[in-house]
Amino acid sequence: MRLSTRIAVAMGVAVPLLVLASGALLLRLVAHDVHREQDAHLRERAAVLLPLARGLLQVEGTGRPRKTANHERRLLDAGLDVGVRLTADSEANGDGGKAPDLVPPTGTSGQGTSGQGTSGPATSGPRNAPAGIGTTATQQPGRVVAEAGPQPDDAVLLPSAAFDPVTVRAGHRAWRALSVQVRSAKTSAPQGRLWVFSPGSAGNAEIDTVQNRILLVALIAAPLAGLLSLAIAERATLPLRRLQRRAAGLDPGTSAVRLDHSRSRVTEVDDLAHTLQTVLARYDEQATRTQEALATARSFAATASHELRTPLMGMQTNLDILTDHPELSPADRAEILDDLHTGHTRLMGLLIALRALAQGDLVEADAFTVVDLSEVVAVAVADVQRHHPEARLTSHLTPGLRVHAWEPGLRMAVDNLLRNAVVHGGRPGAPVRAGVALRPSGRPAGPVAVLTVDDDGPGIAPQERERVFQRFRRRTDSPGSGLGLTLVAQQIALHRGTVRISDRLEGPGARFEIRLPRLGDTDTDDTRTMELPLRRDWLSDFPGPNRP
Known about the structure:
The chain crosses the membrane at residues 214-233. This protein has 10 helices and 12 strands. By secondary structure, the chain is an alpha+beta fold. A hairpin with a 2-residue loop joins strand 3 (166-170) and strand 4. The protein has helices spanning 3-60, 65-78, 204-236, 238-248, 267-307, 309-324, 330-362, 373-387, 407-424, 484-494; strands at residues 83-89, 142-148, 166-170, 173-182, 192-199, 369-372, 392-397, 402-405, 433-441, 448-455, 498-503, 510-517. The longest helix is centred in the first third of the chain and has 58 residues, at 3-60. The chain has a 5-stranded antiparallel sheet with strand order 2-1-5-4-3. Strands 7-9-10-12-11 form a 5-stranded mixed sheet. The chain has a two-stranded antiparallel sheet with strand order 6-8. The protein has 3 domains: 1-89 and 141-249, PAS domain (Beta-Lactamase), CATH 3.30.450.20; 252-362, Helix Hairpins; 364-523, Histidine kinase-like ATPase, C-terminal domain (Heat Shock Protein 90, 2-Layer Sandwich), CATH 3.30.565.
């Protein structure tokens, strides 16, 4: 189901429910107002009828029927649209006695319809009748003096007192009832109780009208709310549908076009578009890295097959000589074996260097951590000194220079730089002398660590200083693979640094100077993110040592 349809259905259900809930509250308020109007009308009628009821009780027992009939007519005519019932206290209570708890009328009004009841003297005495108000009470002697108008049947038990209007029920019918004690200033005068009734159906017509209108509004609101919500939802989701069509039309295999989104002023849609653009950018980045990895693997295979052909053919030739000429002298055999050993060493060095280049092309940013550069250089100097005890190495290292680095790659760069100085930086007949220095430099906003390696060899001509970093660039008498300085250039570029060759400051020789961005004294260990170069294809291409 579409989102706009879901919204329309939800609103089509929610709006009628809200209308019905509001209508129920409105009905309660209307019913309350109707009862309040009924009660006010009952009090008004009771105030008008009370003097007439008092006069009727005074003349009712005097033996003057005509005057009694006139007072009764005046009382009942004044009742207008309400039911009137006047009861006299029985003589058992005595003059001025306590009002009865329950008045069981004994008149002759019949079935309690809304028509005019008959009036006249009534037989006193209790009458058994079912209770109509849901309470338990005992009947007391009394008699009905006069009654007329809409009221409950005489058999319906009334409360002992109803100084505030109450509801009296009998079957499916209900009345609002109000009672007033009829007393005279003379203690010897008869006393009684005046009841005023209003049928409960008096306000039902108004309440039913309100209820019907609420139901009608709910029935009309359901389809209207659904249609209106559908129209609004269709308009609101239009930017989302546009975004969906644009995203569905993207095909990385056939086009380089990416998601183009203009702000729609709908926050959720704009956020979704930004998320899709981020996901697509990450996809493109990973696809590029995958392509680079495939290119690296192909280049590794091609380069390895090309560069390994010569040493392998030399080793095959020497093995053929040993096989075909078993009569070789010990001196010739030893020379061939030495050549095999040299070829094997070169072959292993070449494979290790190619693997290192491939690792540098494939390393990810999460492999970079905070490294103490002074410790890395110190360990590398000690390791080279151990393998080349004849070399004289001096070092001046400033401790505590931290960089964000891939430690294996950084160690590989320093090792190759020091080995290059030991192997190629000496003079014939003299021990190799090399100096290593590490110091801080740069402005506080951009601090760097400067590593310099000096040797006292023949130096490097200016026109050759860029070429020595190319793959397999080496002198004819070099025992290396021609990849050592290429590894140095690769790793320094990965670490966003630079490498430069110059003349030694004191005497002949060459100086290799490396500059790496370092962490400041106030930088924490976990707030720096390494940004790797966009191009990492050192194994397949090489434009220069300080490329972006």
